[in-house]
């Protein structure tokens, strides 16, 4: 596989699509790793009520929004994506917490 071109050096849509597809695969791998940490959290947290932590949720989303602003990408869109990601993570962690204790 040839190395991906820098976005500013792409000259065809095929190059752009190849890079986007590769980045999407990397993002899925990173999300899978993030969910592995949710499994660890489910193992570590002693009580079911500890799974949802609204202060931590706000901190995580706020960090992502700040990083998006710093990267000069749409912070509102990143905030919405992180809201979905964090809620999915909480649901996954809760299911894992219950599975481990069934």
Automatic annotation (TrEMBL):
Organism expressing this protein natively: Sphingomonas spermidinifaciens
Keyword Protein transport found: no
Domain of life (superkingdom): Bacteria
Pfam family, one: CM_2
Name of the protein in question: chorismate mutase
Keyword Metal-binding: no
GO molecular function, one term: carbon-oxygen lyase activity
SMART domains given in the database record: CM_2 (SM00830)
Coiled-coil regions listed: none
BP GO annotations: chorismate metabolic process; salicylic acid biosynthetic process
Domain called Chorismate mutase: residue spans: 7-97
Enzyme class (EC, first level): isomerase
Chain positions recorded as substrate binding sites: 17, 34, 45, 93
Sorted UniProt keywords: Isomerase
Gene3D superfamilies: Chorismate mutase
Enzyme Commission identifier(s): 5.4.99.5
């Amino acid at each position: 596989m040839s190395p991906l071109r820098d976005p500013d050096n792409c000259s065809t849509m095929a190059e752009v699509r190849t890079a986007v597809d590769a980045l999407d695969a990397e993002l899925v791998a990173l999300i899978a790793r993030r969910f592995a940490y949710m499994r660890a959290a489910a193992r570590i947290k002693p009580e079911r009520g500890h799974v949802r932590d609204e202060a931590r949720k706000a901190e995580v989303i706020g960090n992502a929004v700040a990083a998006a602003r710093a990267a000069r990408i749409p912070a509102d869109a990143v905030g919405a994506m992180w809201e979905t990601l964090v809620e999915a993570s909480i649901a996954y962690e809760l299911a894992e917490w219950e599975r481990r204790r069934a």
